[in-house]
Fold each of these.
Amino acid sequence: MPTISVNRKDFDKLLGRHVTDKELEAWLPLVKGEIKEVDAASGEIRFELQDSNRPDLWCVEGIARQIRVKLNGRPDSYPYLRTAKRRLDQILVEQGLERVRPFIGGCKVRGYKVAEEGLAQLIQTQEKLADIFGRKRRMVSIGLYRLPSIKFPVTYVLADPDRTRFRPLGYGEPMSLREILEIHPKGQEYGGLLSGHDQVPLLRDAKGDVLSFPPIINSRDIGEVQVGDADLFIEVTGTDLRMVMLAVNILAANLHDRGASIEPVEVVYPSKTAYGRTVRMPQAFSKPCAIKLSDVSTALGDALSPKDIRASLASYGYTVTGSGSRLLVSLPPYRNDLMHPVDVVEDVAISRGYNAFGPIMPATFTVGGLSRIEQLSDKVRELMLGFGFQEIVSNILGARVDLIHRMRLSNGHPEARCVEIENVMSQSYECLRQWVLPSLLRVETASSRSFYPHFLFELGEVVVLDPQTETGTRTEVRLGALLAHANANFSETHSFLDLLCFYLGWAYALTPTDHPSFLEGRVGRVEREGNAVGLIGELHPEVLERWQITMPCSAFELVIDLPGKSQS
Amino acid sequence: MSEVTQLAESLHPHEVKVVSALKASAQREGLTEEDLAKAAGLEVAQVSAALGRLQLKGLVTVLSETTRPIVSLTETGKHYFQRYAPMVRVMSALRAAAEKGGQLTIKDIQTREGLDSGEISTSVGELKREGVLAIGVGGVVQTTSAASVTADSLQQLIRFVHEGPKPLSEFPASDQALIEKFSQKRGKPKEPFRVDERVIRTYGLQELGHAVALKIQKEGVREEATRLTPEMLKDGSWRQVRFRKYTIALKPARIAAGKKHPYREFLDLVKAKLVSMGFEEMRGGLIENEFWNMDALFMPQFHLARETHDVYFVKEPRHSSPIPEPFLSQVAGAHEHGDRTGSSGWDYTFDRMRTRRLVLRSQGTAVSARTLAATPHVPGKYFSIARCFRYDQVDATHAPDFFQIEGIVLGPDINFRTLLGLLTLFAREVAQAQEIRFAPAYFPFTEPSVEVHVRHPRLGWIELGGAGLFRPEVRLPLGVEVPVIAWGLGLDRMAMVALDIHDIRDLFSADLEMIRSKRVQY
């Protein structure tokens, strides 16, 4: 979720009128935005934008534009998109870049006096697009330059990292590309994107001057835009042509909205792309979508007239053509998020306002109910509560030290096997519990000051490895019960287990066993229908010591759903 | 029954004894707890408890309160009482040696008596000062007198104080000086006595107390039983017995009881609501493959929506068994070019191996996806309360794992307005909210998407949940032709209010005292 910072005055200027807080609140649904913070003194507003598919909204220009279009009832026009007669300046792409960073786009910006707020916003937009939309520059990165310093055509080439030198932003002396990768902070941060390539991308003008080393760093000589500059060149490189084109379109629309005049350029590729060998940028490239009016009405549950639908779409930025029951709708150039007519349906609803639709209460009859395992779980819980046990709910993620070491299980013990996480965030949460007892002991450790006796139970999920299943694991619902008091012992615990099984109608048998977590000779395996389904015993003093528990504990743990019956 | 009678009959036997002792006493200034213990034949602690209750009942009052220095034995003093003070032992060791004609050095005495270096040096120093011994040639200790007055007096005092703490003023001046000398204080931690300023209270009867005592005096203490026994019932002797009356307003002792976990109690309420609204429960495993967790939900494998949706990966095993057909091909087709869904798709090469990568279930929607593929009821309503995991830093707003409450609604009459209707029903039933607002939202698998805000009676406007109509790219590849609502409720904030906690991790607290003392106010 991008969060952006916007200056109130700048926002008003872009919108063309002053906006009250109340109006702003009311319009935010149009951009799926939320105000996070307002600094009344500086006039700064922080917005969070929700829609991952609408990078055009991650800037003040985009937010103001969506609202302005609504107020005007029709989309803005972008004259630079119409085919120009005269010959355009070119960016020439060299053979071989398709293996490294294939695509480039750009445009020229004239007559725009770079002011402080505009520059700050331009840089913020550049960052959000490269960071979030461009996945930390991997798929898209952006460069801004002073246009007067550039002689066209610009060439996008592959360069030898040791034989090319230029002065990068932030440094006084020329450096080789390799030095930049090794020494420059941006080289260190983004160099990984070029690893494995002997030759790296470079952008040069017709004089041979370096514009930038994409996607790492601009030249300090041409690529350091400052307040007061009037004419700019914007360039976008990336790995996906449509993403590159969309980024160019968004930046062009933003500067157009600030009064600049945009001059397109032509990108000449060594071979054909999805948009031809010569690709003009910016261009309106998203495909129109045919929609049936009846589909819109059915999906929304409201019989909207063709006029309503047209008006809703126009006031949300769409260009609508066609007539009768079918419309042909096109997105504005700064969007490319239309995959299916349902996307248009949502925009109709957003444009009209969700609260304008009357809710229809559910009228269809369906039978509610719980799964077999949940019904059984509830029955077990009810019995345990009746036996006087306090219910516990624990986290399922845990630490190996708790689940295995503190239980005196050796690493090789079959019950020490649990599902571990590969990308561990914290040692405390490195694996999924394979049994419930450690969760109850964790409570006992933390609760010696709560009056005794402690009769605890948890009915919850654990995960055990099982190569026979689809996921190689099995999620089991288990009951763990722990008795902690001065006289806690096997026979008392057995009484509860016995009573539980009696009420559940379960025939069970106890067989003596050895288990490191329990005292020898005071531990048994619980068997049902020929399956080992649990353990009962007095916890080993060493286990209690490892948990720093100074009260005798006795416990049982039981699988509630027998293997093979796990899914309801 | 008069108040006096009622009171007299409700007295505990100890209270009767205390009241009677006070009545019998001629002391006008009242009696101390110690006096009363002696007079009533009770322990001081019993007297103290009885006095507390008698004061509450208005029978007894404090007559005077004075602060007096009280002498008592320290742990060292109790030890000296049993094994004698070091000075005494030094003297007796020397006497014993002299009788046998032997001689002892300081070291000999220390070893023989098992004294520590501090004890031996202080005792010998003290005895030298008194002039009863001297150190001779070769460090041999010589006595000049058979007995030490200081040592004998000290041992007597220890024996006397051992009977119980005594006011310092009751001792003669010489003993007081000795006690002061051998008292524990700063810099002298190992001494037999301690002198504490203690508040001494004397107690006397109130007017009501006199009346009650008089009544008891006149009528005597009846034979009273504290409890009814099976024997009394068997032989009918209960008829001859008077049962002591209780003071019933006293605070009772706490007991350990069986109780639901407060968070589970909250979730049970939600579960019951959902079932009452006609929802069927769905379940799934905690370990999922990427296919059901994300691919089937039309979250493209390369896309931002997926990268920001951070999941935990399973270390071993890494992959599930292959995804069943036709779902794999149909979902792959939807991702790549839309297939028959009417969509243009995400236009990339779908990685079929990646679908099998195992993850910890990161969203309850994975359970919904599996339900869609398993010929669900149409019309049908489903819910799950599913434990989910996200790769997030754990803090006051992020638990390591958490419950997601969500589900689906299928039916031919499903549309945007029935979606809003369902959310309205949730708002009323689950959040008891009358005021509702809808806002556009973004979820990768629904279009249109909506979030619902409600005015909570205590929290003001809060987000209750998110929902939407599953994209055709989600439901068609899984074989569902009718529209489907996908909904999710974010109830943790409501749960935290219901439980009065401020850190989401406390929903899974390990603190039994906290769990026992919470009550759910839903």
Amino acid sequence: MSHYIVIFVAGIAGSFHCIGMCGGFACALGVDPAGKIATLYRHLLYNTGRVTTYMFMGGLAGMAGQSLILSDSMSSKLPTDIWHHHSTLANFVTILPETLSTGQRILAVFAGLLMLIMALQLFGYLQRLHILTTGLGSNTLVSSLRALLNSRSRSATLAFGVFNGFLPCPLVYAFIAYAAASANIFSGMITMASFGVGTFPAMILIGGLGQFINHHWRKRAVWVAGLFIMLLGLITILRGLFPLTGH
Amino acid sequence: MKNSLEKFCSHCLLPLGSYPTKRIVNGEDHSFCCYGCCLAYQVKHGSREEPEAAWLLVRLGIGGFLSMNIMLFSLLLYSGTFDVADSEMLPKFYWLLGIFATPVLFILGGPFIKESWEGALQGRLNSATLISIGAISAYGYSMLMLFTGGKNIYFDTATMILVLFTLGRYLEASGRAKAVRNVAPLLEAERQWATVIENGKEKRSSISKMKVGMNVRIRPGERFPVDGIVLEGFSSADESILTGENRPVIKSEGDLVLAGSINQKGSLLIECGALGAATQWGLLCKSVREALSHPSSIQRLADNVASIFVPIVLAITILTIIYWQSQVPLDQALLNGLAVLVVACPCALGLAAPLATALGLGQYIQRGCIIRGGEVQETLAKIRRIAFDKTGTLTKGATRLIKIENNDASQEEVLQRAAGLEQHSEHSLAQGIISVAKDRKLIIKNPERVQAVAGSGVMGYIEGELTAVGRSEWLIEQGLEMPSLFVKKLQNYESSGQTVVCVGWSGKIHGILLLDDMLLPEVPIMVETLKKLDMQTILLTGDLPAVASRIAKSAGVEEWKASMSPDEKCNFLEQWGGIEDPAIMVGDGLNDGPVLARAEVGIAVGSATDLARETADLVLPEKGLALLPWVILLSRAVHRTIITNLLWAFGYNIVAITLAVFGLLQPILAAGLMAGSSLLVVFNSLRLEQFPDNPADLAQVKSFISG
């Protein structure tokens, strides 16, 4: 359970990164003339859409990871009772079942590496890769988002959030990799949900207040997010390389 | 004019099928080739006041939101996460899914159902039919299970099919619009508006209502809507769309501006000189439209296959269900049938050829080449033989005086008399002689009682003496004596293929003018490149064998045929490689218009006459001969793209249908693959945008083709 808290915190820190792109959109959604409650409602809708997309991608990633492992070894049993499995504090950073198949280990190493790469991107390295990850189909997406902004209906706000969730973003990719490594639909979903809910406060605040955060602070927070991702990535890799047995 | 525009999809500009989707956007009538284009167009062009554009996206977003939730719940159900939960809870979950799925069926399924219904009324089945049947049956079956307490619920399948297809069509349409971006302005010519100044007031007017002589204001960044003369202002124009040259051309008072070029820096006031079809721009647009609307044979084949595709798929679906029904439970059999239904969609098939053709067209236009249509592009890609005309094509056409031999008279005198007579000749040699006389600042002696004999020369009286300029035989016939000094020289010159003109007066030939037709500097490299592309080259000319041989040699052309009449050229082209291996003819179209018309592919070079522009299949821009290898390579790249697209579309369908028939494909995965397959065709075609610009860099071009 506790690693979801780590992800949640990473989400909070990471949301300062979001302010760059998604934040612009959240600002554009703006203030509802019907009052504060209406504004809050609008931004909650927007964020619900966004997080639904994240959860969906997390679930899919989890399923992908799961099916990779299933095809790898039919013998390794998948935990059905996830709550129980993750409930002990001893499993602070456990995302994988105790008995690790080769497939799971390879997956963990891959996912961890991906997370490291994304973390480096957040630190400002590998910018060329950044172009690669953001260039794919985002033009259509961004123009769609603009078109949606023209509509003032409530449902448009939700749709806006749904599309927004698909915007290419290294932060999202990093956690999707993590979700895939969990090799379980449900954990994948919850991973992305934790991350998404973590980004709520900043995104709702910025929606109401506009660009209030000092650039310096933003940079620092993004750096913290990168650190978190790096840490999680390293742990994921280590779990893949040296599975703890008989914990 | 309006009718011809309506043949194209407003969004992707590809030709409309026989049954376009019609909508009103911003108060204007528009036709779309598919629902995806309709969606994408409204998103892009719908005005802010119009809620419909965003509304379509809202539908996709809400549909996506609900479907994603359904999908997540269903996934969790499948994976057994809820098995531990109270089994009493399960039916409630199912009802929840059903409640979520119902609006999705209306929101996202609506357009598909409408399209297939309209199709059904016209007695035809289309891809929307497949999607609608698939989604409705999955939904209907799940609903039935819900009410009868069954456990096999497939709301996720029903909704995800719709989300994926809607999304796929939307993305595909965006890609298509990108593909024809270079062509787009060329179809807008007649739709353009201009700022007209009437009685000192500016007002917007449609081109179709304008007249010659009107004053038009052009702001920076605007496209010139008409040809005209600058009255006021200073600016530069980008005429690359007409000339293929990227250099800006300075425009100030009195300069001619061309419709279609773009005003760059300053605001200009111009007087309209010509508009619409009277401009080069208008003609260009017309040819582009024609090119787009003439499908190539390969495209017709693909269209034919696509049209019988849907009924076949329906039949296979039914057979699949009947077969599986005896093997597995009914719901599994239906799922297998559903997979067949949604995996086989002929969208990619119909898209394969037109998209690549349009992209190729855009590339040609950017370089100032006009091509007559997809068929030409396709033929060009296959041809391995190329014939050249000489004068004006490989050579400058204007001949240059390189030597003057004189006898009993000064060089100046010879030139003065020759230039005087040549002023009355229309022969291509004349200008060469006159210009040298002018360069030397000689006083040209004007003749009287001039008589020009076609193919022989000109004679007239200069200073009372009968003077003649022309072929040596003709001069001798006229009773002029050939000095012995010249006899030997004449033989030498003529055998080396140089053109000789004799000048004589008072009973004697006094001078010989030696003229040479210059090879264009870019020709040897161009021919060399063509040979590397496995092209067989030949020179066909009406000139003397000696001339043909010399020019062919310096150009690097393998073979030559001299003294050929246009008819002989046509006949030769027909039998050179036979029907199996036809040839391209490249000419300036001055006297080989009919040859260009009758060749398999006729290519006219830049300064070509109007006749050549009408008859040629492809027109290269001014000084554009060096583009020839690039033109051929591009046609091959386009052809290759079409083939890979078709192979992909066909192969994909065959493999996917087979997998689905054998029950190896989940319907959702099938829908995803299907939507992806047309996107793949779009992306594969968009690779053509990266086709190397620099025709000289053959290595780059070749690596593009083979890569």
